[in-house]
Amino acid sequence: MTEKKYGMVIDLDKCSGCQACSVACKMENDVDLGVFRTRVYRMGPMGQWPDALELFYFPNGCMHCEHPSCIDVCPTKATFKTDEGVVLVDANRCFGCQYCAWACPYEARSLNPNTKVVEKCTLCVDKLDAGEQPLCCYTCTTGARVAGDINDPDSRISKVLAENADRVYRVHPEFGNEPKVVYLVPRKGAETLCKSIGLS
């Protein structure tokens, strides 16, 4: 039996920048003010008419890498990876040195000013284990986000990836982290987009 590997796919053609995912994440995880586990950036305008990609939104969070650079630098081993490939932080071991935040090429971690512990997206692994979607996926108004077992060919995420294989991009592949959060680039202006945010 193939082991589970959790991941997420985000379709940039569908993201409307509504911020429902960011709000849902804060509510679900009781995230303090000034701390973010997921953000949605407004990007653009870029390119030249008539091929210009005038505006798009870019959701960003922990990429749950296959080879996370954050784990290597953590002096207390507070950052770790589960058997399913989800990168987590043990709040009881973290003392807020932020080495992991500096090592992360995706700017996906925040230091909680109240607890002095680094926080990040957990991929709502408890929901995935229960066969449910993370709340950011569930509340996405356009269905841009899908999470699940990327090793299961019958899972919804695997089918989405297979149907859009020509649009799949990972951020900063040059670092060798092998993110398991991947993006489907917009059909229009894909080349310009990729150059602007380091997708390849």
Outline of this structure?
By secondary structure, the chain is of the alpha+beta class. 22% of the residues lie in helices and 20% in strands.
Descriptors:
200 residues; alpha+beta; four-stranded mixed beta sheet; two-stranded antiparallel sheet; 10 strands; 22% helix; globular
Account of the protein in words:
The protein is of the alpha+beta class and 200 residues long. 22% of the residues lie in helices and 20% in strands. It contains 7 helices and 10 strands. The chain has helices at residues 20-29, 69-73, 99-103, 125-129, 135-138, 156-163, 190-197; strands spanning 6-11, 38-43, 56-61, 79-81, 87-89, 110-111, 118-119, 145-149, 168-169, 181-184. It has a 4-stranded mixed beta sheet. It has a two-stranded antiparallel sheet with strand order 2-3. A hairpin with a 6-residue loop joins strand 6 (110-111) and strand 7 (118-119). The longest helix has 10 residues, at 20-29. The protein is globular. The mean pLDDT is 89.
Q: What gyration radius follows from the Cα positions, in whole Å? A: 17 Å
Give the amount of beta strand, in percent. 15-25%
Helical stretch count? 7
| Total strands | 10
Strand order of the largest sheet: 8-1-10-9
Subunit arrangement of the protein:
single chain
Structural class, judged by helices and strands?
alpha+beta
Instruction: Write down the secondary-structure element order.
Output: EHEEHEEHEEHHEHEEH
